[in-house]
Amino acid sequence: MHISDGFGRRFSYLRLSLTDACNFRCSYCLPEGYKKCGGPGPLSNEELMRAARAFSDLGIAKIRLTGGEPTIRRNFDVTAASIAALPKVKTLALTTNGYRLRERAVSWRKAGIDALNVSLDSLDPDTFLAITGHDRCIEVQQGIEAALIAGFSSVKVNIVYMKGVNDHEVDRFIKLTQDLPISVRFIELMETGDHAAFFRKHHAPVLDVARQLTKRGWTQRIKAADAGPSLDYVHPDHAGSIGFIAPYSEDFCKTCNRLRFSSQGDLHLCLFGTFGIPMRRFLQADDQIPELKQRIVAAVRRKSPRHFLHQGETGQTHNLSAIGG
Ligand code: SAM
Ligand code: SF4
């Protein structure tokens, strides 16, 4: 069984948000820090597992745990292990700000997490502090080394590329890939409802950096059929690779292979969609799972062919911590 939309796109990848709360205050995401909004609170473990079971029954083979900061959820390791144990889940991935990575890498690996994305927007401690509100730059870098030792199948470092903030650090990030088998990925700053002025000041196209790389002997790796939107580059002298995520590029939506489920139980068909489809009422008992699956399949058929960010339409996305980036 699989889920597909009206444009021939198949969905085998789910980004599952464990919480919308976060302990960091990234300037492009939650500059004022996390503010609890009212409402019923995040899904319970039982609700979360029903959602994960429904999606995996529908052919979702890769689940990424995200947030907010997913690792601040209570009993995070137990939740991760339960999802990893679902027989049809082939890859369990985690996106984290890395604040506990150094200490927790081994136990997260043991819980069954295969792949790791770590956000690290600067290699300079002062800039890192200015961006995130936390003086943890060195700790996060040590966490990345700990993750490599712990044996994750893939370790990716995510950098939100910002003009006037960290664009001068590109070469330092590229150098990281010389000896480390990691993928360093430059993510283009996306406009969200809360940060139009920040976006205007700091947005710059990441594909400009990609063009520079090709002049320096890097070549674009051919994409696998089921690959996501990242454009990846390799170089014979580098153990790792460099990736670019360019949501404003023409073809970005064509390769969309992912769905999003918020920590409140809403299905999001697009990061920049204008609505989430509430599913929580179908997560209350195991015998609701068949109906939940039917509703997911029907909703995905209505997925729009593309986002409208170019026209400045950020949908209902105030910041990416609410949906999970
Ligand atoms: N807290 C975790 C982290 O930071 O890795 C996971 C959630 S975060 C919302 C997921 C990803 O979205 C991170 O890589 C973050 O850098 C990225 N992100 C957040 N806001 C963004 C924005 N406005 N533009 C581009 N990327 C953004
Ligand atoms: Fe938190 Fe991640 Fe948003 Fe930074 S990007 S504020 S770490 S959710």
Give a description of the structure.
With 325 residues, the chain is of the alpha/beta class. The protein contains nine helices and 14 strands. Helix 1 crosses helix 9 and helix 3 runs parallel beside helix 5. The protein is globular, with a radius of gyration of 19 Å. The model has no long low-confidence stretch (mean pLDDT 90). Iron/sulfur cluster binds next to loops. S-adenosylmethionine binds next to strand 4, strand 5 and strand 7.
- Beta content comes to 15-25%
Order of SSEs:
EEEHEHEHEHHEHEHHEEEEEEH
Through-space gap between termini: 27 Å
**What general form does the structure show?**
globular
Main pleated-sheet profile: 12 strands, mixed
Oligomeric category: single chain
SSE blueprint and pairings:
Layout: E1 3-4, E2 10-11, E3 13-19, H1 45-57, E4 62-67, H2 76-84, E5 91-96, H3 101-110, E6 115-119, H4 125-132, H5 137-150, E7 154-161, H6 170-179, E8 183-188, H7 196-202, H8 207-215, E9 219-220, E10 231-234, E11 241-245, E12 258-261, E13 266-268, E14 277-278, H9 289-301
The site of S-adenosylmethionine has 20 residues, from strand 4, strand 5 and strand 7.
